[in-house]
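Write out this protein's structure.
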Amino acid sequence: MKEEILYKLIEKTASKMGVDKSTLSGNTKIKTEIDLRSLELAGIISEFEEEYDCYIKYPELMHAETIEQAAEVIAKSCE
């Protein structure tokens, strides 16, 4: 499930940020490399919550430094 979420997170992040998804990976740093703001992140979170019918703890996600770490938080929340 984590790999599926990672793939979807990269797609959703690329779409929100207006970048090519091939420029993103699990190692991409959320704040320093793509400057993903909290409002954009909140939108992405709500999409995952709807799709997987789960609740994602926003504060935990804010501590994620990379896209892969964020995917791990989402996967754990939506198991």
